[in-house]
């Protein structure tokens, strides 16, 4: 016959947490390393363009450019002089007809509201289509 005495002498089972934590840390480390390597990988078979070659840089330097600006007050600037929209339109039309490979760049002050920039950008796009660019600052 068993008594309560036998139960008191038996030890409570212990769970050793150290090996379990080792396994968890190993799995966590694995996932961190995998996630770091995947951020630099190409996704969906998309190959990104590399930097420009010397030939591309030389061709771009030879390409005719026209730069139009919007100052912090929203006024149009061309050749460092204030200009009205009609004069800009005429100049861009003339430039694009004389330079079939030329590009038009719009440089707008970063303090302007996007609606102000978008109005002139639409006008330029209507004139030059895919040869009109909005300049941004790198960095």
Automatic annotation (TrEMBL):
Principal localisation: membrane
Pfam families the record matches: ExbD
Membrane topology per record: Single-pass membrane protein; Single-pass type II membrane protein
Protein's UniProt keywords contain Protein transport: yes
Listed transmembrane segments: 21-40
InterPro entries: ExbD
One of the record's GO molecular function terms: transmembrane transporter activity
GO annotation, biological process: protein transport
GO annotations of cellular component type: plasma membrane
Gene3D superfamilies: 3.30.420.270
Subcellular location field: Cell membrane
Top-rank lineage group of the source organism: Bacteria
Keywords tagged on the record: Cell membrane, Membrane, Protein transport, Transmembrane, Transmembrane helix, Transport
Family: Belongs to the ExbD/TolR family.
Protein name in UniProt: Biopolymer transporter ExbD
Lineage per the UniProt record: Bacteria, Bacillati, Cyanobacteriota, Cyanophyceae, Oculatellales
């Amino acid at each position: 016959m068993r008594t309560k005495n036998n139960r008191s002498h038996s030890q409570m089972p212990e769970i050793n947490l150290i090996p379990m934590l080792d396994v968890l840390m190993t799995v966590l480390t694995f996932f961190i390393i995998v996630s770091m390597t995947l951020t630099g990988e190409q996704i969906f078979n998309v190959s990104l363009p590399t930097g420009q070659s010397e030939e591309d840089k030389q061709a771009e330097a030879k390409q005719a450019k026209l730069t139009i600006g919007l100052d912090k007050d929203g006024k149009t600037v061309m050749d460092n002089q204030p200009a009205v929209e009609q004069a800009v339109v005429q100049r861009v039309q003339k430039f694009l007809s004389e330079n079939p490979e030329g590009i038009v760049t719009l440089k707008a002050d970063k303090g302007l509201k996007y609606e102000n920039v978008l109005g002139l950008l639409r006008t330029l796009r209507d004139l030059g289509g895919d040869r009109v660019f909005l300049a941004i600052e790198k960095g």
